[in-house]
Prior knowledge:
Blueprint: E1 4-9, E2 13-20, E3 23-31, H1 34-46, E4 51-56, E5 61-68, H2 73-88, E6 94-101, E7 109-116, H3 119-131, E8 135-141, H4 142-153, E9 159-166, E10 169-176, E11 179-187, H5 193-213, E12 223-229, H6 234-240, E13 247-253, H7 254-261, H8 273-282, H9 296-354, H10 364-380, H11 385-397, E14 401-412, E15 432-442, H12 450-465, E16 470-476, E17 500-508
Helix pairs in contact: 1-3, 4-8, 5-6, 11-12
Keywords: Membrane, Transmembrane, Transmembrane helix
Transmembrane segments: 305-327
Amino acid sequence: MNPRRLLYLDNQRLTAHAWQRGKLAAEGVFEMRSEEFTRFTDYLRAHRNSQFQMLANVAEEGHQLETIPFLQGADRKALIARRLGQHFSGSPLATAVSLGYEKGKRKNEKLLLSALTNPVHFQPWLKCLQEADASLAGIYTVAQLGGTLLTKLVNPEPRALLLTFQDRSIRESYLVDGQPLFSRMAPLFDSSIAGVASRFASEAVKLQQYLVTQRLVGRNDSLPVYVLAHPQAILAVRQACSDVPSLAFEIVDNHQAAHRIGLKSLPDDSSSELLFLHLLATNAPRQQFAGEALRHDFHISQIRYGLLGLGAATLIGGLLFAAIQVYDAYSMRQEAQILALSEADLNWRYQEISATFPQLGIDNETLRRITDRQTELSKKQRLPDDAYRLVSRAMNEAPNIHLEALDWSLGDNMQGTGAPLPGKAVTLPDGKVETITLRGTIRLGPTATARQTLATFENFVEILRGDRDSDVTVLQQPFEIESGRALRGGDIENESAQPRQFTIQVVRKPSS
């Protein structure tokens, strides 16, 4: 982050401080003379990369309460700029603080308008800042920081007076809800402890009377008065500042105040400029008095440091990603080495175990091919389960059929040698088919006729053809029937007691 430097401007001089981690170090004092302006410009150029904030403690400071209609955007900005010009004669060092909205139906907005009414006093210093291209974050006042200081030190009342000593003068601020509605400087001619204590007491009374005449407080209202003093001056201040019905004093040790706000550079006397400078570095108000033209270099520096931060974040992200990749590669190499060692150990153990195997007379490669072939043949092995179920079902429905032999084979699709009986034609696919050859006899008894025997046989064949995946072929009929010759019962009277033999071939697709 860019270094922080604070510029403290009073009616006589400008003091430059370097701020770092709660410590303030004075780096130069520049008087209101032309040669000092040149020296101040050289100082700014020597610290070109720093961010500057200016804290002003001048007498020419004005505050005005104003109410405007409810507006937003550009209309609101234009109206506020016009009101600032009306109240402060067009001073470019002006700002507005919103105090909220009224609870009425129109929701008018309450504003606190503030300005540094003598911009000529700031002009030479601001010109030096522009010539040196210094990054000016903003211009602030001691009165602005009074509410912030009280909030950090005590639990202040909504309306309070704050008296501080700096630059041989007393800064008197009337604060309402932390915002300065009135602030002025009272010159101090006696800077001794007794003189400062007496001045605190007299200025508190004068300020209360002025606020009553301006009808900012009631005549019978009691105001708390907070006074910052050095530990060695607290007793004298407490004796000089006695409570009255309209004022209740509370003395605050400025060393304890420094510890509470985190300031490590303790004040040497009752002056409070170090406290306000530290607050400016740590809790700067949102509103400030410098125009956008004066803060141009500050905006440029913000963009520059934003880009640098983005580049640094990208670089860090890239380095982290590269580190992760390097770690992953290292882990993979380690894992590969472990796997290689494990493989070598397993190979050694296999060699030891294989040395105890009986010698088969063939090498390992040939044995591997044989086992692979055996596995392949095992996967292709078919069993005649479905074929046997088909024959068994047909014989259950034709009890007069007696099976004498059954041949089953698996091979290529071949056409049967016999003529199929009329019936359903089945087209079998090319490739492997299973073939079942049935040899059997028909036994109907001595009184059965030839037609009964043929009818029983044909019924058996039709049962076999009931399977849609089968092609049934009759290889041998139970009777020799020649074409053109009639079948008569007398032809078989001599053989009626003999069983009639037949042969059937069934070709079917094997089950998957």
